[in-house]
Amino acid sequence: MIDGREAASNRRIWGVAGLVEAISQSLAERFSVVVVGGEISGFTRAASGHCYFTIKDADGQAASLRCAMFRRAAAMLDFSPADGALVELRGRVAVYEPRGELQFVVEAMRRAGAGTLYEQFLKLRARLAAEGLFDADAKRPLPVLPRRIGVVTSTAGAALHDVLTALARRAPQVEVIVYPSPVQGAEAPPALVNALRTANERAEVDVLLLVRGGGSLEDLWAFNDERVVRAVATSALPIVCGVGHETDVTLSDLAADLRAPTPTAAAELAAPSREALLQQLAGLERALALRLEHRLQSVGQRLDRLALRLSRPSDALARQRRLLDLLAQRAAAAPGRHIELQRQRLAHLAPRPARALAETLRRQAARLDSLQARLQALDPQHVLARGYAWLDDGQGGAITSVHALLPGHEVRAVLADGSADLRVLGVLPSRQG
């Protein structure tokens, strides 16, 4: 109860919303960007895509902080958060005003300690990829029907139980041989390498499963160890690697011949389903029986036809007799037919020489007429008959120019019907000459 004296004083009386807003502003100014580490508890993802959980110290202290991670930030996660996971959160401290509760608005999340390890992961992946350890061309196909499957994992982990359960359900006919090895801790990498070497030396299985359950990046780090990755890449036996959950990717996954999202999936990928194989065999059996039945029916029909032909040999003899009669008629008629054809051919060819000779004579006569006309056209006598005269110097040499004449010269003029001796009285050259 507030007494009258206090109410009458100059002290400010806050409204609830105003006070909460003032506290929120103060927190935002002081804790605008904060990184906090701890363990996730009560993680839920709403249908809207927003995530809500509580972060608390991993050493068991009672302090806790409600967190909200909105859909945009949650979409950028590269792993699946779960209760108990140690994480580092970057964000801001705020007040959820409807309830006046303190909360941490998460803008980014990563596994605790993942920064340094992830950088090591990226550097090692780049170096091994440059060497070709992850090339797709180096991947080998798995055996279609394995008789024995080897499993490299810890005998104390749930992964072995999952693999054995899946194989017993899916392919009970397949024998399983376990090559035990720790899958976490400093002793895990050399133990895994030794287990892989042992399996290859014994060569008693058709395919190897390298598996373990999920965990943090630190928990799965043995499968990023360079020694293990090289042992996987150089294995003579094909390897299916199923480490962690579907979102977990190790370098051993990249080096293996096939990556499985989980240990159970590795078992399912390595061994075909017995039920599916039986169904396939049943289908082949039905197809074989159907084809055999069709073949028997076809052969039976052919036998029936042959039996009918054998039951009436007189019909076959009659057909052969008719064929022989026809051939005899053709043979008897063939000479006469041939002679008649030759006679017709000769009758057709006989007029050809006479026609060819007549045509040749006609063409030669026409050619002679043409040559005679050309010869007559060139005869000088025809020119003289048109009133021209030919002058010579009396020795038979033709005079073709007045420059060859002088007054008093005697020349001969040859006309169409004779010649005359002439004397030159004068020479008058033309202007053009």
Describe this structure in words.
It is a single chain. The chain is 46% helix and 20% strand. It has helices at residues 4-8, 16-30, 71-74, 114-130, 158-170, 188-202, 226-233, 251-255, 263-270, 274-311, 313-349, 351-378, 380-384; strands spanning 34-45, 51-56, 64-69, 86-96, 101-111, 148-153, 175-180, 207-212, 239-243, 258-259, 390-392, 410-415, 418-423. It has a five-stranded mixed β-barrel. It has a five-stranded parallel β-sheet with strand order 7-6-8-9-10. The chain has a three-stranded antiparallel β-sheet with strand order 11-12-13, with no helix packed on it. α5 packs parallel to α9 and α6 runs parallel beside α7. The longest helix is centred in the last third of the chain and has 38 residues, at 274-311. By secondary structure, it is α/β, with parallel strands linked by helices. The N and C termini lie far apart (157 Å). β6, α5 and β7 form a beta-alpha-beta unit.
What is the radius of gyration computed over CA atoms, rounded to a whole number of angstroms? 59 Å
Low-confidence stretches: none
Shape: elongated
- Beta fraction of the residues? 15-25%
Helix/strand structural class: alpha/beta
Mean pLDDT: 84
Strands in their spatial order, largest beta sheet: 1-2-3-5-4
How would you sum up the major sheet?
A: 5 strands, mixed, barrel
Number of helices: 13
Subcellular location: Cytoplasm
Domain Exonuclease VII large subunit C-terminal: 133-422
EC number: 3.1.11.6
Function: Bidirectionally degrades single-stranded DNA into large acid-insoluble oligonucleotides, which are then degraded further into small acid-soluble oligonucleotides.
